[in-house]
Recover the amino acids of this structure.
């Protein structure tokens, strides 16, 4: 089309751009009146391609200076306006449709036109950034300076229009990335050596920072960042280019854990330019890191509003808007935040928005969805989950249609926990990651028990038993005998018997077949099988003979079979005859109750939980606690923090129901109830309980100290044990302890005594208790301190934790060094709580008060270890 005047020229500098140049020229050939191309030394077909579009091709030697080459190209345009375009760019359709009409109507005092540049960052053209830059100039009104990232020096007035230029130069191959990185870095460093203007220096340092971001050496980027921070302190106003830096460096600092510093960077950028959306996104991500969900929502909504306003006025932004490539992620974080504060409608809105936006931005929607769905586990209210059900179904459809692997475990778990249904058509589109997820899906579809499916995981039952022995057979028998008919169960037992060389397995399988016949009233068959089992495995005779004797007395199905006897034998001190937690792993074990109503599944889930309240909830569902010998012990553990009085009662019941719980450490002493205890005048029934537990978890009580203990705080302020072992019980315990333990716990080391005594100017002392004099004698010999039983000085190395009133020991004492143990009041697992010999515990503060009341001056308190203290006192 012939035009009346030369309105618009395009000026390009190129080198070796045969893979790009045709696209650029095609985009301008019908909209410009003149194409000027300056080639700076191409060795490929670039010149030949250019000649197809224009005869104004000029050659110019490359001098390592982009501005020099750009200024050379500006000598040749003859039209009124000049467009600056690079070979790796092209004009948008909006540009081609509207730019000429706009230029013809622009006022005479306008000399420079800003256009948005959309920088594509991936081959799918989904991830992008936007910046508005001066692109069109009235001919003769512009020149460029600086050898790299050259800057246009132009005349006002300036106008901004939204007709975009597309830039593909950041979509690099590895080889091209390295080439461009090295060239650009070297030119920037060269230019910085001669820059004096502060703003220009900041500009090029930021460009260097961004260049180092694609380099191999991350430390270079951060070294540059700190240089920029020093420069920014100078100018009163942060330069526009530094806004990009504040956002990018803020993200780096945030990801490194420097949260407060990152916040300062984001806030500085917002204060400097409130219309810039990127730092709002930084604040959103920061709040996610801190898990400050209300604040995340506030910043997220601000970001979206600022971003929309910016996009609608993109031509006004002279620096890069990078947040558009994170838009789906921003909605994902908002979805998480709304979910955390139990606003499911808003959460659904944002996660579905994230789905749609990710199609355009190319963000990792798999990561976004998996992070969101992981948060489903924190939902505690059924109604919140119900409000999200439709959203979950849409996510399933999306993942199925787009072949994306999404983790739906938490959704399945919550649906089962809340007793909700998911349409089968939706469930069938979920891809289970393991057998447990498969069983959860099956459970939601058929409502059946799938405990065995999880345990067997595709194996035949007999294979499972042969691999895991008699305990697994007894377990399998327990969970199958009510779910399959006797014929199938006998077939299974026969299959196990025939496929093993283990005589115990053979005999046990036969004995269980005898039990099935017994319970079915087939007494003759039962007797025959029992006898065969004894022949196969004589060791089982002691369990089978009593049953045969019972059958001779009366033929009744009420007789207990071999199974019950074998369970007692193989269980012994075990909580479960077959450890499902170990076999399946804790994470599966804690969720078994979701796919099975069997008491074993519920119990295993209960004892695998991390939260006591969930353990208690599941234990309460078990209707026959007698099935589980450690049931009340587990129940007691769930109350140790929340209801200490109830925990004490449950711990006692646990010992009464299962005597072996009284000696968890050694497994030697059962619960007898024969524990000499006493009650002293200072003890009150309403004294505060500060700790409850089973001592035998850490120390055997050796059959003489009560295994269940509560620590109570008396009116005076010290702690005492309840039940309170009397002196005879302590004497017996000490005798047994000396015979059983190589080294008694909580012994005060001679080195600690030496450390304390070396600071005291004593000539003579006595030791309490006297029987330990021999053990510590060398310490006092080294310090030349004489040990005399009638001394007015005393070293108490042991026993303070057994004595309710210290005045009897300190009678006639003028100066003392007293060693004593204290528990960590914030740690209920501290061994001090559990040690059976301790029956009185004093804090350091209480010890000072008690001794002052006895007329002593406290000269010093020394911390010798986590639990050991020594107090030095002297009679006032």
């Amino acid at each position: 089309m012939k035009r009346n005047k030369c309105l618009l020229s395009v000026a390009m500098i190129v080198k070796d751009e045969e893979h790009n140049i045709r696209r650029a020229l095609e985009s301008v050939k019908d909209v410009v009146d003149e194409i000027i191309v300056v080639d700076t030394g191409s060795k490929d077909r670039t010149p030949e391609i250019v000649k197809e579009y224009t005869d104004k091709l000029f050659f110019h030697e490359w001098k390592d200076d982009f501005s020099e080459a750009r200024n050379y190209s500006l000598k040749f345009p003859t039209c009124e306006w000049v467009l600056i375009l690079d070979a790796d760019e092209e004009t948008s359709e909006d540009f081609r449709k509207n730019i000429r009409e706009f230029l013809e109507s622009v006022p005479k005092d306008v000399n420079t036109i800003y256009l948005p540049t959309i920088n594509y960052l991936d081959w799918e053209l989904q991830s992008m950034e936007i910046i508005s830059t001066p692109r069109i100039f009235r001919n003769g009104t512009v020149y460029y300076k600086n050898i790299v990232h050259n800057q246009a020096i132009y005349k006002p007035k300036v106008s901004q229009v939204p007709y975009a230029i597309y830039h593909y130069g950041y979509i690099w191959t590895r080889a091209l990335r390295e080439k461009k990185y090295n060239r650009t870095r070297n030119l920037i460093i060269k230019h910085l050596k001669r820059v004096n203007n502060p703003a220009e220096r900041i500009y090029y340092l930021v460009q260097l920072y961004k260049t180092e971001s694609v380099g191999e050496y991350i430390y270079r980027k951060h070294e540059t960042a700190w240089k920029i921070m020093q420069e920014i302190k100078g100018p009163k106003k942060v330069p526009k280019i530094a806004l990009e830096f504040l956002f990018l460096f803020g993200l780096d600092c945030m990801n490194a854990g420097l949260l407060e510093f990152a916040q300062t960077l984001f806030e500085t950028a917002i204060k400097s330019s409130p219309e810039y959306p990127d730092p709002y996104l930084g604040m959103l991500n920061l709040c996610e890191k801190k898990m400050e969900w209300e604040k995340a929502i506030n910043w997220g909504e601000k970001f979206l509003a600022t971003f929309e306003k910016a996009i609608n006025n993109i031509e006004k932004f002279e620096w890069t808007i990078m947040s558009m490539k994170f838009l789906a992620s921003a909605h994902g974080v908002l979805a998480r935040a709304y979910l955390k504060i139990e606003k499911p409608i808003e959460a659904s809105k944002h996660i579905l928005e994230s789905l749609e936006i990710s199609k355009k931005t190319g963000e990792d929607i798999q990561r976004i969805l998996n992070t969101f769905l992981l948060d489903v586990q924190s939902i505690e209210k059924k109604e919140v989950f119900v409000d999200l059900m439709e959203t979950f179904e849409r996510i399933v459809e999306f993942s199925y249609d787009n072949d994306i692997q999404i983790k739906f475990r938490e959704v399945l778990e919550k649906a089962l926990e809340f007793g909700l249904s998911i349409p089968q058509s939706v469930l069938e589109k979920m891809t289970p990651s393991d057998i447990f997820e498969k069983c959860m899906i099956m459970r939601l579809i058929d409502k059946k028990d799938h405990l065995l499916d999880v345990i067997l995981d595709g194996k035949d039952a007999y294979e499972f038993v042969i691999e895991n022995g008699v305990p697994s057979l007894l377990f399998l028998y327990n969970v199958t005998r009510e779910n399959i008919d006797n014929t199938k169960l006998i077939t299974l037992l026969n299959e196990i018997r025939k496929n093993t060389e283990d005589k115990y397995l053979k005999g046990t399988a036969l004995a269980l077949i005898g039990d099935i016949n017994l319970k079915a009233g087939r007494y003759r068959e039962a007797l025959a099988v029992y006898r065969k089992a004894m022949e196969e495995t004589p060791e089982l005779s002691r369990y089978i003979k009593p049953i045969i004797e019972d059958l001779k007395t009366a033929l009744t199905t009420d007789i207990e079979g071999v199974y019950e006897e074998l369970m007692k034998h193989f269980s012994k001190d075990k909580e479960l005859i077959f450890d499902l937690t170990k076999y399946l792993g804790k994470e599966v074990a804690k969720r078994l109750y979701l796919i099975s109503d069997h008491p074993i599944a519920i119990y295993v889930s209960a004892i695998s939980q991390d939260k006591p309240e969930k353990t208690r909830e599941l234990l309460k569902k078990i209707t026959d606690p007698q099935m589980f010998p450690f049931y009340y012990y587990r129940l007691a553990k769930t109350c140790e923090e929340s209801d200490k009085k109830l925990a004490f009662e449950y711990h006692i019941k646990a010992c009464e129901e299962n005597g072996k719980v009284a000696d968890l450490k050694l497994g030697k002493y059962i619960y007898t109830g024969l524990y000499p205890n006493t009650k002293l005048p200072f003890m009150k029934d309403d004294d505060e309980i500060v700790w409850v537990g089973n001592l035998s978890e850490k120390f055997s009580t050796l059959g003489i100290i009560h295994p269940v203990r509560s620590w109570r705080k008396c009116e005076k302020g010290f702690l005492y044990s309840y039940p309170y072992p009397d002196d005879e019980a302590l004497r017996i315990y000490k005798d047994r302890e000396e015979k059983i333990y190589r080294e008694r716990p909580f012994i005060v080391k001679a080195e600690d005594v030496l450390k304390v005594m070396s600071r005291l100017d004593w000539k003579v002392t006595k030791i309490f208790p006297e029987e330990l004099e021999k053990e510590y004698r060398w310490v006092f010999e080294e310090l030349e301190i004489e040990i005399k039983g009638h001394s007015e000085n005393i070293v108490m190395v042991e026993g303070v934790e057994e004595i309710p009133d210290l005045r009897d020991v300190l009678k006639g004492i003028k100066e003392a060094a007293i060693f004593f143990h204290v528990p960590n009041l914030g740690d209920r697992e501290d061994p001090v709580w559990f040690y059976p010999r301790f029956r009185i515990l004093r804090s350091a503060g209480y010890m000072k008060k008690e001794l002052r009341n006895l007329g002593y001056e406290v000269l010093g308190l020394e911390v010798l270890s986590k639990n050991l203290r020594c107090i030095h006192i002297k009679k006032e």
Q: What stands out?
A: Residues 517 and 525 are 6 Å apart (CA to CA). The chain is about 50% helix and 15% strand.
